[in-house]
């Protein structure tokens, strides 16, 4: 989880000074904030992120969020829940009922 928060902050703010709220969110998530700031200043992960961004663009992913489901479906951007239900139905994934410990709806 810590790396995810750092990556989100990194991607959103690469090349920019970190705003106080972003630093506070990262700190609450347990991220080493001084280390994160140093990594940003040094552009430590820039090449890696550029390569992942290029890879995503080759796959047609150009928005956030982008969900690749079962290596067959690409769902771009924020979508209503029922769209995900339809994709799961096409994949024959049984629907789960909230609060039942993962039991499947029949």
Describe the SSE topology.
Layout: H1 2-13, H2 20-28, H3 33-42, H4 46-58, E1 66-69, E2 73-76, H5 81-90
Antiparallel strand pairs: 1-2
Strand order of the largest sheet: 1-2
Tell me the distance between the termini: 33 Å
Global mean pLDDT = 75
Number of strands: 2
Query: Helix fraction?
Result: 40-55%
User: Which segments are poorly predicted (pLDDT under 50) over 5 or more consecutive residues?
Assistant: 1-7, 9-16
Decide which structural class fits the backbone.
mainly alpha
How would the global form be characterised? flat
Percentage of residues in DSSP E strands: 5-15%
Describe it:
This protein is mainly alpha-helical. It has five helices and two strands. The longest helix has 13 residues, at 46-58. It starts with a helix and ends in a 16-residue tail after the last helix. The model is unreliable at 1-7 and 9-16 (pLDDT under 50).
In brief, what are we looking at here?
The protein is 51% helix and 8% strand. The chain is mainly alpha-helical and 106 residues long.
Q: Notable features of this structure?
A:
two-stranded antiparallel sheet; 2 strands; mainly alpha
């Amino acid at each position: 989880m810590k790396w995810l928060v750092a990556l989100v902050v990194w991607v959103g703010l690469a090349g920019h000074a970190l705003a106080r709220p972003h630093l506070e969110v990262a700190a609450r998530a347990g991220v080493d904030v001084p280390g994160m700031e140093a990594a940003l200043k040094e552009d430590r992960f820039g090449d890696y992120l550029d390569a992942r961004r290029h890879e995503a663009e080759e796959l047609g992913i150009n928005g956030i969020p982008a969900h690749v489901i079962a290596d067959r479906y690409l769902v771009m951007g924020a979508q209503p829940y029922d769209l995900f239900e339809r994709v799961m139905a096409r994949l024959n994934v049984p629907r789960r009922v909230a609060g039942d410990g993962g039991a499947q709806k029949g």
